[in-house]
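Schema walk-through. Below, the input block comes first and the output block second. Nothing else is stored per chain. Lengths vary across the set, and this one has 371 residues.
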Amino acid sequence: MQVATMETSQKTVLAAALAGLAAVAVAAFPYGGMQKVYAVLIGGLAGLALYHASFGFTAAWRHILTEKKGTGLRAQFVLILLTSAVSFPLIAWGADFGVPTGGFVFPFGVAAAIGAFMFGIGMQLGGGCASGTLFTSGGGSTRMMVTLLFFVIGSVLGAAHFSQWNQLPKLPAYSLVKDFGPHWAFLLTALVLGAIALWTIRVEKTAHGELLPSRQTGSLLKGAWSPVLGAVMIAVVCILTFVLIGRPWGITSGFVVWGKKGLELLGFGGQVSVLRDTTSVMNFGIILGAMAAAALAGKFAPVWHLSAKDLATAVIGGLLMGYGARLAYGCNIGAYLGGITSGSLHGWLWLVFAFVGSLLGTRLRFKLGMG
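--- output ---
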């Protein structure tokens, strides 16, 4: 009887998630037509893929540092290269074929370096990056819901202070695609990522004597997925975003919209629509897609008790990520993944400073007994 009740509960959650996706798509349609609908559906696919593959950037960075295991990091590189193989030509020539596509190419300076460093610390304390926070929240993690709330608050604070931080010295925006063309830009990207991947292989073999086996795909609908399948499916998400939305996938700018909406509901600020912003509705799609994936896997079961340490680290981690992402022109998705797949130098520099911050955040995790 208990098993049957659990199965019924998961089916109810799945139905609610699918109904939610449909409702958001219908509600967003008047604010941008089919582009908004595409954003919701692409977000849903992203949530499904992120959940089934447990595709987080946070754990992958921590694993190479603490367990000398590079599977997750190499999966990220597969994702970047698959996306870049399509995004670089689109950015260069898409307009000529009726697919105008822009990239995320931003300057990088003192403020961005500090922001990326803050984000790296925050992602380890908070327990997830921007995409990880969304899909684990959608999957039923109450701790990550707290992280998400304070991620939003930090984003609003960072946006409010951005003009002051932006006065600090910075390098000009630089595009590999523009200066080298898509082919050479892709080759350079592949060489750098290939070199780092070889380093992770050497580290892993030195520590363990061989490459450790990675998770294998179970069921396409119920999960779990292998890291490679996750990388391929998330690359599909990135490519669809470039083609149908006309730019890279982003997340944290939508959090600013959510935060401003929250202020409006509290009686502060002007009118804001969370359905008018494409990133915002795509984020809703990610949460609902992950919720559907959790129900398909039979794992949607929120636990409502949080320890004081869990609560404190979720709050601090969320604030650091939200504030840092605003200073650094984005998060692991918008700045790192979106920047590199746009051929932007700022994506590479974000990776360096965020990784250093992640190293410090990992050490703090162990001092706090978080594992």
